[in-house]
Amino acid sequence: METIYNCLRDAHDQDLLLIAAAVCVTGVYASISLARHAGRLDEKGRRFWLMVAIVAAGSTAWATHMIGLLAFQPGMQSGFDPYLTILSLLLTVMGIGAALTVSIGTRNRGRRASSGILLGLSIALLHYLGQYAYLVTGTISWDHQLVALSLVGSLPLFSAAIVLSGERPAWLRQLAAPILVAAIALLHFSGMAAIRFAYDPRIGLPDTVLSPEMIAPIVAGVSVTLLILAFLGLRFTLAARAQAAKDRTRLKQLADLAVEGLAICQDGAIDAVNNSLAKLVGCSQQMLKGQAIASLLPDTQLDSLSEEKELDGELVASDGSRVPVRLLRRTVKIGKSEHVVIAIRDQRERLRAEHKMRILAHTDSLTGLSNRLQFTQTLSSRCETAEMTGEQFALLLLDLDRFKFVNDTFGHSMGDELLKRVAQRVRACSKASTFVARLGGDEFAVVVDAANAETAAENFTDLLSRPYLIDGTVIDIAASVGIALCPDHGNDLSTLSRNADLALYAAKSTGGSVHRLFDRSMSERAHARRQLELDLRRALVREEFDVYYQPQVDPSDGSFQGAEALVRWIHAERGIVSPADFIPLAEETGLISQLGEWVLRAACEEAKAWPSHLTVAVNLSPVQLRDQALAGRVMQILQETGLPPTRLELEITETALLQDETMTYNTLHALRAIGIRISMDDFGTGYSSLSYLRRFPFNKIKIDQSFVRHVPEDRESVAIIQAVTSLASKLNMTVTVEGVETPEQRAFTVNEGCNQIQGYLISRPINAASIRKIFQEPLRSVA
Ligand code: C2E
Ligand code: CA
Ligand code: CA
Predict the structure, then answer these.
(1) CATH 3.20.20.450 residue ranges in the chain?
(2) Disulfide check for 278: which of 33, 285, 410, 717 has CB 3.0–4.6 Å away?
(3) What is the pLDDT of residues 328-377, one digit of tens each?
(4) What span, in angstroms and rounded, lies between the C-alpha atoms of 755 and 744?
(5) Could you tell me where the beta strands, DSSP code E, fall in 453-579?
């Protein structure tokens, strides 16, 4: 070390050494800045400027070396061999070119380290070849230890400098240049110190030698060129920086326009954020700059964020609150460096909207109660918990009685208002925690403790059947309740609902306004009903039906006026089944349309064979009357069978009129228009609304058999028959009394001026052959 230092101090011109250092620094800067500039350009420009950078690097090494040699004062005359000097310059440029080619564009440290060794070897070659080209008037000897030191000491430094120049952190990269200068200096000066000169007057310089005075301008020229290149490099660097700053500003302006929060990060630290993100976090853009992005998104592994898929996370705002966000990561290049842009979208609004939608999807919009969807989910989960905890609960199904009547009579808005009031009452008589749902139409569900089930059901039937006052109208309805217990009557949604439904059905069929607890017989009955339905369908296909006829006579003289057609089911096992047992089921299942048409056709065909003054009366179900095509179908059957319309009577009950009044009205008028007669059947059992008699085109009133049963003793029955008879005659209608079983009853009807009677006294319903026989007999006295 001391030798090197002494050599530096004693054997060198200090001013020239400073110039050498300056040229070295300038040249290194020129090479690096030009190489960077090349990196920013496209393929063609890059190759050119890379060449320039390599030549500059070679020239720097050469010029530094040459100035170093010029600064050296061997104490005798010296000079340079021109060929070897030029060769050393060329080899250096090539060596450095090769070294840079190995390292350029790679982050691989092994390759960069080898590139550094290659660079060191080129410069060592330059040095020792240059040394060889240095001629003096004397002999030259070498200190081999120092030569070895110059190589062993500097090569690792070269290697380190090139490795560092490719590292990511800026401060490591900045270490590269000083280490490179140190490597060159170490190589050069230890190399210089290794030479020993001994003056020998016998040795002269060859003629071709270039004296230091001649070489100096060339070296100066190269140095000035390097200075110019350094300026050029500086300009390029400044321009690139300005461009990057401009890009960054433009990016920031663009980012501020975005609704989404954006954070531009580098190495995990926030470089910049846009307005939206600053607002979301709740502090200024300036304050966020430099913070670790992980402090905003502590639970998110940002490195694992994919570039394509969005990820849900939580942002910690400045007040410590957590904001649900959706994240997307993008890598962008700003200038030469890579940045990560993280897009942060506030999810609060979306989640709120989703929450609202979820609530809406589970709520009945009319009453605000839970809807069927929520009912299914709640009941399923209640069944599951009950299974685990052993808890018992009851499912109550509520159904309003006569709601359909209110809806049809007063209109749908009244119906809706009524449903709202019912919902309010159900809520009011339940605990806040009780689950209440509207399942649709006029059906509600309530889930209560098993122990309270019957009391609650009683409360509901009582409270719901109290009158409602809506828009000045008093409305009277009632409610029926079916109860099923979990787990006794089922421990899953479908069994429990089905059994509660069966209990409700049982409650309804007892006339409503009551509650029923499910029992096994209900499902047996339901099963029997299903069996009956299957049988009924089969019977329709096989035509297992027959029509019986019950004669209708004038009570005063017993003369036949016609007969009522009454259907019978001839069951293979059960024998003759009464219509009372299967008509309701046929109506429920819709099979009545087919059956009714079949009866009508059979009756018309049969009546054709009767004496021409006799009529046939056929019963029409309300379900048939609801069919718009009914009138057309009746006419077609009349046409096909050839029965004159005037010989057909259709019997309808009041319930049929309650449905769609306008349509019923039109149908009845169409039938009347072609001469068919219309009878009101079972008068006195339903609402017996006198307005119906006025509004609809009836020809006949059939007083229900329950009235004649108690005459002449029961004064009320007598009064009703008298009133109806007098009303009918005023309305131009005839009166038939059904169910006349005794001569006294018949005498009474004669007395009251009734036009027609029908009953066991005259005949039970009989089959077609029998009625034909009766009708062919001469006038029969039934006294
Ligand atoms: P309805 O129209 O009131 O028919 C009269 C019912 O009273 C018949 O019962 C008849 O057998 C019975 N009856 C007649 N005279 C007497 C009597 O003196 N004393 C008693 N105790 N009963 C008497 P049936 O045939 O069992 O019919 C029951 C109901 O089934 C009918 O009542 C009618 O509403 C319905 N129905 C019968 N056939 C048809 C049909 O073809 N279509 C439709 N839609 N319903 C029908
Ligand atoms: Ca009838
Ligand atoms: Ca009747």
Answers:
(1) 543-775
(2) 285
(3) 888 887 666 788 889 999 999 999 999 999 999 999 999 999 999 999 99
(4) 16
(5) 468-470, 473-475, 478-486, 515-517, 545-553, 560-571, 575-577
pLDDT at 778: 61
Best residue among 566, 567, 592, 653 to mutate for probing ligand 1, ranked by most atoms within 8 Å of CB: 566
Q: How far is ligand 2, taken at its centre, from the CA of residue 619, in Å?
A: 5
Please tell me the residue having the least CA distance from ligand 1 atom 46: 619
CA distance 280 to 347: 11
Q: Name the token pair of 519.
A: 């029992």
**Predicted local confidence at residue 1, as pLDDT:** 64
- The residue from 417, 649, 651, 738 that is catalytic is 738
Q: What is the mean pLDDT of the chain?
A: 89
The Å distance, Cα 236 to ligand 3 centre, comes to 111
Q: Where are the alpha helices (DSSP H) in 104-210?
A: 109-133, 144-165, 170-193
pLDDT (tens digit per residue) in 219-275: 889 889 989 998 998 999 899 889 888 887 887 788 778 888 999 888 889 988 988
Number of the ligand 1 atom closest to the C-alpha atom of 653: 34
Class of domain 543-775: alpha beta
Helix (H, G, I), strand (E, B) or coil at 264: strand
Q: Which pTM was predicted? A: 0.51
Residue-wise pLDDT tens digits, 672-682:
999 999 999 99
Rounded Cα distance between 555 and 762, Å, is 10
CATH 3.30.70.270 segments of the chain: 362-518
Residues of the chain with CATH 3.30.450.20: 258-351
Mean pLDDT of 38-60: 86
Q: Which of the listed residues 548, 598, 599, 619 should we mutate to test ligand 1's pocket, taking the one with most ligand atoms within 8 A of CB?
A: 619
CA–CA separation, 14 and 68 (whole Å): 10
What the block records as the tokens of 695 is 């509004």
CATH for the stretch 258-351? 3.30.450.20
Measured from CB, residues less than 6 Å from any atom of ligand 1 are 550, 566-567, 578-580, 583, 596, 599, 619-621, 651, 681-682, 705, 739-741, 759-760, 765
Atom in ligand 1 nearest the alpha carbon of residue 704: 3
Report domain 362-518's class.
alpha beta
CA of 620 to the centre of ligand 2 (A): 8
Strand partners, 570: 576
> How far, in Å, is the centroid of ligand 2 from the Cα of 566?
8
Q: What is the pLDDT of residue 781?
A: 44
